[in-house]
Amino acid sequence: MASLKTFTSCFVISSLLLACSWFVAIEAHGSAPIVKGLSWTFYESSCPKVESIIRKELKKVFKKDIGQAAGLLRLHFHDCFVQGCDGSVLLDRSASGPSEQDAPPNLTLRAEAFKIIEQLRSLVHKACGRVVSCSDIVAISARDSVFLSGGPDYDVPLGRRDGLNFATQDATNANLPPPSANADTILSSLSTKNLDATDVVALSGGHTIGIGHCSSFTDRLYPTQDSTMDKTFANNLKKTCPKADTNATTVLDIRSPNKFDNKYYVDLMNRQGLFTSDQDLYVNKRTRGIVTSFAVNETLFFEKFVLSMTKMGQLSVLTGNQGEIRAKCSVRNSDNTYIKLETEVEEGIEALSLFK
Ligand code: HEM
């Protein structure tokens, strides 16, 4: 008994030491630099109210259904990881073929999230004209989703432009790792985007809110139960998903499913992470200490999450004269009949003035 106690206390102390040493190491990490073309005050004169308009509207949306916050946070992640944060995930399929939205990882994005972004765009453009990009609206909405669910508030560098094309199905699948991926796979996949182990663990903390479908995790239950999963947790998941292809959902963070906090990491320490990509962060030696440090220190998690989100939010952005400011988030301007008509009328007026 005494030896068990000694072992347990040694384990706890060594976990905390690991967390402490990691904490010292990341202090030198510094703050995320801002990329050329983006700015903290981008809409200061062209649309000074953009952020307050979005926040006010989202407060109303979340009051009715806080679940929408998770949908909007995930939308920003799926936008940024595929071809950069250029709003390409918002584009509907076109004559040229299926869009990013048709790729398997995007099929579980919430339809409401797209509608909310379009509603916000309409409000913002009504107030300021067509000056704010859809990709910036997505980035601001993700920040507000975090904050209004109880997480940190932070400034978002702005000035993204919207892309003219969406990515192929192959590119979409290749850039969004599946939930069955282990930590080594996620680490190497995200390192291609200059995101390190701290970023991987911090960004995965986005799973502190929201839901997942059975198909995203039943490979851990059937035919054999994943040995890294807590038995009671697994039995409860089996009740939600009696068969691998059940179309039900469950929460990502059993301790506080709608609150943006550090409980996701406490779940992982208790073998209650939903996806392999979550739980393996506590199995893998390279990420385990980071998980522990976030589980014991929420302030540290919030600080690192903001840094990593700021990095993610600037991946391959279009700025300056690149891309465009879409008049409707789901359609590029050259395919937008309203804009086409507007341009034709303008050209007609110009032509007429030549005869005067
Ligand atoms: C690191 C690799 C990641 C993987 C493998 C992954 C995978 C997934 C999967 C499979 C789902 C559930 C889909 C479903 O079954 O409905 C999900 C949901 C979610 N993910 Fe991730 N994700 C990752 C990273 C992130 C990041 C970086 C964020 C944001 C910072 C994020 C935020 C979310 C949110 C908020 C939900 C819940 C969405 C909702 O309730 O509608 N994920 N993720």
Automatic annotation (TrEMBL):
<feature type="binding site">
    <location>
        <position position="79"/>
    </location>
    <ligand>
        <name>Ca(2+) 1</name>
    </ligand>
</feature>
<feature type="binding site" description="axial binding residue">
    <location>
        <position position="207"/>
    </location>
    <ligand>
        <name>heme b</name>
    </ligand>
</feature>
<comment type="similarity">
    <text>Belongs to the peroxidase family. Classical plant (class III) peroxidase subfamily.</text>
</comment>
<feature type="binding site">
    <location>
        <position position="253"/>
    </location>
    <ligand>
        <name>Ca(2+) 2</name>
    </ligand>
</feature>
<protein>
    <recommendedName>
        <fullName>Peroxidase</fullName>
        <ecNumber>1.11.1.7</ecNumber>
    </recommendedName>
</protein>
<keyword id="KW-0575">Peroxidase</keyword>
<feature type="active site" description="Proton acceptor">
    <location>
        <position position="78"/>
    </location>
</feature>
<dbReference type="GO" id="GO:0020037">
    <property type="term" value="F:heme binding"/>
</dbReference>
<feature type="disulfide bond">
    <location>
        <begin position="80"/>
        <end position="85"/>
    </location>
</feature>
<dbReference type="InterPro" id="IPR033905">
    <property type="entry name" value="Secretory_peroxidase"/>
</dbReference>
<feature type="binding site">
    <location>
        <position position="82"/>
    </location>
    <ligand>
        <name>Ca(2+) 1</name>
    </ligand>
</feature>
<keyword id="KW-0325">Glycoprotein</keyword>
<feature type="disulfide bond">
    <location>
        <begin position="214"/>
        <end position="241"/>
    </location>
</feature>
<keyword id="KW-0106">Calcium</keyword>
<dbReference type="InterPro" id="IPR010255">
    <property type="entry name" value="Haem_peroxidase_sf"/>
</dbReference>
<dbReference type="GO" id="GO:0046872">
    <property type="term" value="F:metal ion binding"/>
</dbReference>
<dbReference type="InterPro" id="IPR019793">
    <property type="entry name" value="Peroxidases_heam-ligand_BS"/>
</dbReference>
<dbReference type="InterPro" id="IPR000823">
    <property type="entry name" value="Peroxidase_pln"/>
</dbReference>
<keyword id="KW-0376">Hydrogen peroxide</keyword>
<dbReference type="InterPro" id="IPR019794">
    <property type="entry name" value="Peroxidases_AS"/>
</dbReference>
<keyword id="KW-0349">Heme</keyword>
<feature type="domain" description="Plant heme peroxidase family profile">
    <location>
        <begin position="37"/>
        <end position="333"/>
    </location>
</feature>
<feature type="binding site">
    <location>
        <position position="86"/>
    </location>
    <ligand>
        <name>Ca(2+) 1</name>
    </ligand>
</feature>
<comment type="similarity">
    <text>Belongs to the peroxidase family. Ascorbate peroxidase subfamily.</text>
</comment>
<dbReference type="GO" id="GO:0140825">
    <property type="term" value="F:lactoperoxidase activity"/>
</dbReference>
<dbReference type="GO" id="GO:0006979">
    <property type="term" value="P:response to oxidative stress"/>
</dbReference>
<keyword id="KW-0732">Signal</keyword>
<feature type="binding site">
    <location>
        <position position="261"/>
    </location>
    <ligand>
        <name>Ca(2+) 2</name>
    </ligand>
</feature>
<keyword id="KW-0408">Iron</keyword>
<dbReference type="InterPro" id="IPR002016">
    <property type="entry name" value="Haem_peroxidase"/>
</dbReference>
<comment type="function">
    <text>Removal of H(2)O(2), oxidation of toxic reductants, biosynthesis and degradation of lignin, suberization, auxin catabolism, response to environmental stresses such as wounding, pathogen attack and oxidative stress. These functions might be dependent on each isozyme/isoform in each plant tissue.</text>
</comment>
<keyword id="KW-1015">Disulfide bond</keyword>
<dbReference type="GO" id="GO:0042744">
    <property type="term" value="P:hydrogen peroxide catabolic process"/>
</dbReference>
<feature type="site" description="Transition state stabilizer">
    <location>
        <position position="74"/>
    </location>
</feature>
<keyword id="KW-0964">Secreted</keyword>
<feature type="binding site">
    <location>
        <position position="84"/>
    </location>
    <ligand>
        <name>Ca(2+) 1</name>
    </ligand>
</feature>
<feature type="disulfide bond">
    <location>
        <begin position="47"/>
        <end position="128"/>
    </location>
</feature>
<feature type="binding site">
    <location>
        <position position="208"/>
    </location>
    <ligand>
        <name>Ca(2+) 2</name>
    </ligand>
</feature>
<feature type="binding site">
    <location>
        <position position="100"/>
    </location>
    <ligand>
        <name>Ca(2+) 1</name>
    </ligand>
</feature>
<dbReference type="Pfam" id="PF00141">
    <property type="entry name" value="peroxidase"/>
</dbReference>
<feature type="signal peptide">
    <location>
        <begin position="1"/>
        <end position="28"/>
    </location>
</feature>
<keyword id="KW-0560">Oxidoreductase</keyword>
